[in-house]
Amino acid sequence: MLIKIYEENPNEREVQKVVSILRDGGVIIYPTDTIYGVGCDLTQAKAVERVARIKGVSDVSKSNFSFICSDLGHLSIYAKPISNPIFKLMKRCLPGAFTFILEANNNVPKYFKGKKKTVGIRVPDNSIILEIVKELGNPILSASVKDEDEIVEYTTDPELIHEKFGDLVDLVIDGGYGGNVPSTIIDCTSDIPEITRQGKGKVEL
């Protein structure tokens, strides 16, 4: 299924339709402020396994999937306490094209965490996915939609994404053309934050 949602004013009925699919353990493809993502409700173990299979990952706990949150309120639920400077940095950058690597706490589902001690947190600057996460009430597990093409790493056209991946997921959201530059990753697991991948987000540390 392919549905159109406009970022300027996400239709409440369409948002509820997406949330209902997620609550039923569905997997969706959705727009962000960078590239299109594939994901599900973080608390739905079987759906998480489906996302892993789509990404060709055999062990979820060894993956680099991140969480999409609607705001920084989810931080204390899934991450260990952070220092004031790190919180200020996150507040300055989010919503935005950044993934923050933080120390995970025990609330992160075991099937996701495994022996991994970190979690990637995203709050994209995209009203479609933020509205969906807000309505859902849980973070969405997130992975990038990559292309097999050697030249074009990320598919940006939602209709092409639907053609390629529509049979593997329950819903593709057409939120307009996506970008092809991923988020900037900032590792905040030590006292001094470090950019481990320079992507779309720009910030002075």
TrEMBL record:
<dbReference type="InterPro" id="IPR006070">
    <property type="entry name" value="Sua5-like_dom"/>
</dbReference>
<dbReference type="InterPro" id="IPR017945">
    <property type="entry name" value="DHBP_synth_RibB-like_a/b_dom"/>
</dbReference>
<dbReference type="GO" id="GO:0003725">
    <property type="term" value="F:double-stranded RNA binding"/>
</dbReference>
<protein>
    <submittedName>
        <fullName>tRNA threonylcarbamoyl adenosine modification protein (Sua5/YciO/YrdC/YwlC family)</fullName>
    </submittedName>
</protein>
<dbReference type="Pfam" id="PF01300">
    <property type="entry name" value="Sua5_yciO_yrdC"/>
</dbReference>
<dbReference type="InterPro" id="IPR052532">
    <property type="entry name" value="SUA5_domain"/>
</dbReference>
<feature type="domain" description="YrdC-like">
    <location>
        <begin position="12"/>
        <end position="201"/>
    </location>
</feature>
